[in-house]
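Running low. Any example?
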Amino acid sequence: MTLRPYRPANLPEILELFYNTVHTVNAGDYTARQLDAWADGAPDLEEWNRSLLEHTALVAAEGGTIAGFGDIDASGYLDRLYVHRDFQRRGVASALCAALEGAVESDRIAVHASITARPFFESRGYQVVREQQVVRHGVSLTNYRMEKRRPSPAQNA
């Protein structure tokens, strides 16, 4: 597996991965209606591309297939982290997350984690700040505001 920066040419495969991951991997924790609201199959291509280009966005590739992707902004907000359904539990999310966390200087990394992703982030040292109800297309979904505090350079000395 290799990690590389996002390129706009990756967008169609990333959007397909996003839709399929939400509708398969997250299906055990959310209803079909919630999954459809989360990933409706009609994403705003310009908005996704703009956001990924503004953030530090990485793609994990294996054998010519995008196995996962993620992005983080300069403040330390980990916006997206998705792994292809066929590449689950192979270290893709861990590799992406570690690289994204290392790409920013913030002393705090924050994420809005799904019910499905919460155990992954907890295993990486993130703590739940609060449970949230997010409304997408009129449908309420549970997620968690989670944070990971990193020691300042002075604390490491």
Notes: The first helix runs from residue 11 to 24. The mean pLDDT is 94. DSSP finds six helices and seven strands in the chain.
